[in-house]
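Why do we bother with holo predictions? Because pocket geometry can differ from the apo form. Keep that in mind while you read this record for manganese (II) ion.
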Amino acid sequence: MKFEKVALPYATDALEPVISKQTVELHYGKHHQAYVDNLNKLAAGTKFENTDLETVVKESDGAIFNNAGQILNHNIYFTSFKKDGGGEPKGKLADAINEQFGSFEKFKEEFTAAGVSVFGSGWVWLAKDESGKLSILKESNAGNPLTSGLIPVLGFDVWEHSYYLDYQNRRADHLKEIWKIIDWDVVSARY
Ligand code: MN
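The structure, written out:
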């Protein structure tokens, strides 16, 4: 079975003006696709050939890990948005955020600041442990909370390819805007 990327659950212009159609087309259509194509080539003939993506991420390293990690990361990322999203988390996730960070506003501030401070290419993640305790993780390159034994709930891509066409060097501005397109139904269901 070949590795595949998740289907985009909205039109490529649905996230405008926060993320432009051009960025979605390049990021989802080219970058994400390249990770899929790379992994299918790299995994062929290895023990990872018919494995699920999460297992590959947990057990691989090097180029296989980098491409598998990026497929998983982008599958989570692109399904976290919707047209006219935003607002606040729901249900148990909302309770856990209030308990861990004091309020949704404080969580947003802390998460955004963590994303701004990732040096170079990487991700900022909200993750939960087995008990449901939340934490914010900064990861380089293809890093994902799974490799720390945690479950990813929300991840913002801070590779320049995710925002440079729309915001140039202004990563902080991009991360300030991205909250307006979050699909909290989907994200809250991951908790
Ligand atoms: Mn990306």
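The pocket of manganese (II) ion is lined by residues 27, 31, 74, 157, 159, 161-162 (CB under 6 Å).
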